[in-house]
Amino acid sequence: xxxxxxxxxxxxxxxxxxxxxxxxxxxxxxxxxxxxxxxxxxxxxxxxxxxxxxxxxxxxxxxxxxxxxxxxxxxxxxxxxxxxxxxxxxxxxxxxxxxxxxxxxx
Length: 106
Known about the structure:
With about 110 residues, the chain is mainly α. It has helices spanning about 1-10, 15-40, 50-75, 80-95, 95-105. The chain is elongated.
């Protein structure tokens, strides 16, 4: 839905801010889900190292910070906000502690 809206209009403050707000909401849902799953080891393996849990939490916060920066940029430089939104998924392609933990268990 937000991509359709952004493709129908040139990069504008409203479109870029709307897209950023949706990304921030999605990130918030991810963070809340991870906190619930990892606290008291409700839904994660008890053997998962605490450092891995913290690394994933930090990774989520980094994403939220970039999306937040993009949201703020939408009001000043809408094109820059789109660049930030586009570059953020590339960060998630980099291996992290959670990926190393998963590959060790496989």
